[in-house]
Structure formats: C-alpha cells, structure tokens
C-alpha cells in the first residue's frame, strides 16, 4: 500500500518504521498536495495543530483514500472535513506500552482500522470522542499514582535501608495493610518537612477515605485543607 506519512517533532510512534517493515511504501509528506497518489495517509502531528492540517488535507483528499490520525485527545470526529470528501477516516493513538486506542465514524472505517492495527500487532480498544476526556483523566490519575508510589518507595527506603523491600511495599507486591487511624495519620503528616509531600499525603488520605467510607479520616483531611 502507498502510504503518505505527515508528521512533526511531536511524533514519538514507530508507525513509519513498522509500516515499512510490513512491506508498505511509506513516503514523508510535507505539503498537503503530496497526498494525491496515497492510498493511506497517517497524520502524526501535534494535536493542537491537527484541525488545521485536516482542513488543508481535505482540499486534496479523494474518495476512497484512508486517513488515520494519532492524537490521543481526539477520536475520529475531528476528521469530518476529510470524511465529507468520501474518504475513510479513523483514529489510532498510543496509550501506554502496547495498548492503543481506536475510533472510526462508520463500519467501514472500524473494519479498516482494526485490520491495520492487527497487521501492526497492536492491542487496541475502541474509545469514541465522548469518552476521550475520561480516558485522559484516567491516564493522569495513573501518573499521579506513579508519583505517589515513588514518594512511598523513597520514604520506605529511608526508613528500611533496603531498596527491594521498599519497592515491594510501594508497588503493592507486599500488602501495606489497612489505613491507620486519624491520630497516627496526623502524626505522620506532622513529621513531613516537605510541604508538597505533606499536601499530597492529605489529598490521598482524603480520596482513600472517600473510597473506603472512613468518615473520620475524611473529616481530618478536610480540616487540613482548611488549615486547621
């Protein structure tokens, strides 16, 4: 398949190389007019500029061409200007590791993007525009959790002097046990010299209390937020 690859410095995927390895003819695209002979066009650009690239490409798109963008924040709806030319459009974006997310506007687009993902050996999940912000928020929570685990590992290492034991507890390999009572949490909080770490401690205590129904801990955390 003749593939046009439109990308900028924000592209950190290996789609270009993967498509070439599969035997496709992949050519870099720098101007929208260069897509005329392409069967598939990959749009791997900064998501902030994706709408303007789509508008420019729509001026040269033709019926039957396939357009796929790689921006995680958008589903396939952003490609509407291309779809109205008769092109087939879809979204294929990396999420984490081998996990990617896909979207399409119709059954043909869904079939094509699923076949392309299978050819590339990707593990994919359909996520439409209506669920994209929730997806991104979940990804941010995962990053927050990673930061919290790093803090936990650092403090445990300082106390235990054993990196493996500290990491095993922080990563959940070994259970950290039940949440302590308010008095113990308050004492732990008071011992923290780092204001950022102390603030994170309170926020996480409150959220954990909300999830587990620990009303006394939730009230304590609210009091800390209010400066009491």
Automatic annotation (TrEMBL):
Pfam families, per the entry: 6PGD_like, Rossmann-like
This protein's name: Uncharacterized protein
Domain Putative oxidoreductase/dehydrogenase Rossmann-like span(s) in chain numbering: 35-94
InterPro entries: CGL2689-like_C (IPR054507), OxRdtase/DH_put_Rossmann_dom (IPR019665)
All residue ranges annotated as the CGL2689-like C-terminal domain in the record: 128-223
Gene3D superfamilies: 1.10.1040.40, NAD(P)-binding Rossmann-like Domain (3.40.50.720)
